[in-house]
Amino acid sequence: MKDLKNDNRGMIIVFAVMLLAIFLSTALGFSYFIIADINKAAAIDDSIVAYYAADAGLEESLYLLKKQEAAASLAELKKIRPSGGELAGAGANWSIVDSADFERNVLRQRLYDGQSVKFFILNRANTPDSNQTKSVVLKWFKGGANTPKLQVNLTQLSPQRDDKSGAWVYFTDASEVELSDTDPRCFDLQDLSLGGVPLPAVDYLMELKVLGGPGDFVERLSVDAYNDYCDAWQSADLNQEGITSLTLKSTGSHGRAVQTIVAHILPKNPVSGLFSFVLFSEQDVVKDY
Question: 106-242, which class in CATH?
Fold first, then answer.
């Protein structure tokens, strides 16, 4: 009988199979990373196209609103041109169906010294009393090395005749500087009355401005609209359409990627002494990406 211990026949096949297994494992490992990189690159490409689709939808909507004046509100615009497809043959789409003419609150993440935020509370006279904004609640937190303050101005947009000068003036419910940020601050909307007889509910402009030093800021600033006055706001309902903060939200999609751009559009300020509400103005548009 042959000595099997010294028989090396077949070892080449074993080594060949082992090498093939090693090469195959290495190739599979590299292919995994290569495919992952390809997928990431494709996702980036899709995101870029989706972003420009969203921007195209936003710009087209702004053009229809501000230049052509094709609609008087975002609700009307959504009926006219809610979406667009096959952008420039790229297979991308955009939609503005999530846009809104009203919000229940205003939120700003951070405002530095000297910066301000302005918003309107409009159409109160045409809103049923049960769903009418009667108060707003302010919340904010200080930031920076010093102690920034917050200037609050709440101005009625129905002018009154000044007894002395005879000029039309806008009555200010509140004009004060808030020092604390520990508790919410509530402000009633004080509608006008004539001889004890209430007049139709008036509209309001609210402006908040940060007062501090270099590097000071206010963060997590929010203002909520409520359907009741300050003595009962904690048990009252948030007014879902209490604040006129025109929010144009354009969402673009391409492949699996979705990108959204939001534009906040301020209504036009009062003109000609009397409040004449023009929905869209020539003011700058604030975009959030």
Answer: mainly beta
